[in-house]
């Protein structure tokens, strides 16, 4: 079961998606009681969505404390919105799944600034998820896809209870992204406040490379070698920077694949990622 939810972030009401593990659900009254004041209100209740996956209805969610998987989407504004079919795929792996939409999107207040203040929408989600009685607050992992890598990496730095970090086809160097993506330069100038040479700090503040050596949790890089939207070299640079002084970093390279993987390979990569999340540090995942 997936809920479209509303929650507070820096005084704004922003949107997101909360999914229960596949096969579990909450009764209407339990959902109201457990989510109210965090991910719903009288004015903006959590809205259950129809799932494309078959679900059993007799399994009790609150019988244990669940790990959480946060999926930080790519794109900006309404371009690249949360992929709910990805949320469903993630829910197959025995995790609560949360996907922030970012401010200014899907009816949320504020403005998406491509890894600017919208990072706080992810911080707020981590705090609120940690308060849910059926969540294990020490088992919250986070994945950033494409530009979502910015929000995910900074969340891993700022929120001390993040268990593991995954950067999938992720931006690590915003200046390189500006140089590579000629088609997005006008958007970057408008949203970030100019090109890198006029506003270098704003680009550094959106570059996970800047903070790589400060990230305290294990990190997995997932990247296709033929990615033309976020160059494979960005994954390589992030891996090399992280790998300078630690041994809890892994790189799942996918030869010949681009920014988005074909469905069958995408599902296999998701399973491999969740195997990595569940493994002990330094334990090899084939």
From TrEMBL:
Pfam families assigned: Peptidase_S9
Enzyme nomenclature, EC number: 3.4.-.-
Keywords assigned by UniProt, alphabetized: Hydrolase
Protein name according to UniProt: Alpha/beta hydrolase family protein
Organism: Paenibacillus shunpengii
Domain Peptidase S9 prolyl oligopeptidase catalytic: 91-277
Keyword Phosphoprotein assigned: no
SUPFAM superfamilies listed in its UniProt record: alpha/beta-Hydrolases
An example molecular function term from Gene Ontology annotations: hydrolase activity
Keyword Thylakoid assigned: no
Top EC class for this record: hydrolase
InterPro entries: AB_hydrolase_fold, GDXG_lipolytic_enzyme, Peptidase_S9_cat
